[in-house]
Every structure is written in C-alpha cells, then in structure tokens.
Amino acid sequence: MGENWFNVKQVADKTWAIRDKTQVACYLVEGEEKALLIDTCWGLGNLAELVQSITSLPIKVVITHGHPDHVCGAFQFNDLYISNEDKGMLNAFYDKQTRRQLLENRFRDQHPADFSNGEWINAELGNISTIKEGDMFELGKRDIKVIAVPGHTPGSICLLDEQNELLFSGDSIQTAPILMHLDVSLPLSTYFDSIVHVYSFEESYDKILPSHGETPIDKMVLDELINGVSEILEGKLVGNLEHTFFGDGLVCQFDKTSVIYNENQL
What we know:
By secondary structure, the chain is of the alpha/beta class.
C-alpha cells in the first residue's frame, strides 16, 4: 500500500521527502541515534509502516503547523511535538465529527484500497509536547533547530538543519501559493517579520524543503517573498481578487511563488 500511496525521494544525506497522492509532503531525517518525522500528511495511507521500512531508529514527530494535511496522520505515532499556538488546531482535527466531514467532503474516493473509515475517524492522539523558538531536536550528530514563523498560522515553524544546510519550511516558504487569507492567518506584516527572521539564518542553509510544490527549492525564493510582501505592505503592489477553495483573497504572483492575502489584514 505504501508503495502505491506514497512517493519517496531522497533529497539529501539521510533525508527523505515522502509525498502522498494528495501532493502534500512530509520529511524523514535520520541522525545516528534518532529519526525525526516532519509532518504526517493526511494519515490516509500507512505512513508509520513506510517510515519504519526506511529507518529502524526511534522516531519523534514534529508538526510545522496545525492544518489537517500536516496533522491528520499524527495518530500513527506516539511522540508528537507542535507549537503551543497551534496545539488547539491539532486537537480540533481529531474531533470525530470534523474528521468525518473531512473524509466525506475531501476524500470520498481518494484513499488506499484497504483504508478504514472508522479507524481514521476514531483516531486518537498520543503524547503531545509543545515546542518554541530555539528548541533543538538532538538526533545524534545531527541537530534540528526550531524557528518560529507566525503568519500562515499563529504557531507555524521552520526547522533548520545546519549540518546539512537544509531548511524545512512547512507552508511558510514554497513555490506553491502562500495562503495568508485563511481564518487563522495572522496579519501580512507579521508574516513579513517572520520571513525576515528566517532570512537571518540564511548562511546556515542552502536548500529549502517545503510541504507543497517543488522540493527542494532555491533559497532565492525567500528573497523573492521578502521583496514582494514588502511591496504589498508599502502599497506598491496590489493583488488580483480570486475565489479560492479557502475563500476569497488577493493574489500577488511573483516570479517563482505567490501570496494570497486579505486586504483587511495587512
């Protein structure tokens, strides 16, 4: 099942991108003593089984933010970490009625053949710990640092692997549209401050590994976002109104990426 539902690609030394058929990616990174799974996709396929086929090391799971395409597979693992600001969102997507609606509205026909509706709807979370800016996952000669990037959600994070010059960016930096018009999104100016903060680490990473769109991407995408969002905030750029699956927003297309924002939340 894992082979059919997931696509696995090694993107760096002891680092794998795992993309499911809904086209959301999570990442598995190995140190010498432990492994870290970054996000869990939708949980429609047996991600735990796939991860165990790649690594035999003990696994911790860190969630970049609380949206369902990142947290809904978390029930397959025991040792979970998320920012305090997004912990409530994580728990909300384990409400049985919410999960039933997600399944009916989004995935009625899109899941593996041996998928169990009841098991997915009734899933329960394991132990949840909260993390913050500067916290470190020590994996054994490989340390992964938490960088807070509030914006897309209040508790969004990036994860920095200085030894391998990698930045795992969740939905905060990517070539797919950056969704800043959601109900949970913070003002665009807050997001701008966050990506400027990420830029302060730019000598420590060479590649960015996001959850959607291409992976890995060039770190110049971050420069493009900083410049573009700055022009929106200064009134030099105004997006075009578009009706999206997640509601109306103003879309500003840059060169390799774009931002969808709310004009009343700058």
